[in-house]
Amino acid sequence: xxxxxxxxxxxxxxxxxxxLMVGWVALLWLLEVVDVLSGHALDRLGITPREPSELVDVxxxxxxxxxxxxxxxxxxPLLVMGFLAALGGLRRFAVLCLAIIVADGLGVxxxxxxxxxxxxxxxxxxxxxxxxxxxxxxxxxxxxxxxGLLVGAVWGGSILxxxxxxxxxxxxxxxxxxxxxxxxxxxxxxxxxxKAPALQG
Length: 201
Fold this sequence. Notes:
6 helices, globular, disordered N terminus
């Protein structure tokens, strides 16, 4: 592949990642508008732990928020970290997000305080943070290492704060599980065998 072709490929990938994340964040805001107009009917899609019927909300809960301030707090980190992770390919990004969301939702369902209602994209955000933080090291990619260090420098403090059990009204359990799921997924991707090179005989 020529240098020009490679450049276009990277540009197209960046455009696709940007469009995906702008659309994702816009969807979160739209859902919150619907939630407010419906008298917060969508809030019931949050996860109430250890209720079997709540297992169907494991994925939807990652798209529901409790007010516009909640959406606003999650929008920028989701947009930036999602974009960076999606640069590795949209198919891989879809697997990454699904793995984090499902693991995080099931973990919340198992260990969150009784009678609580947990929703929001922060579990996914913590997962993307964990993924970006370690994937460059696991895959031995210098650019990935640099991205991880930058993400850690920008959001590391707020991530540590979000893991504190002393905060009220915040699911530190969901944050912790999301972070662990992101790190685990980075190792899983890093250990997948690479395609064998095509050799001409």
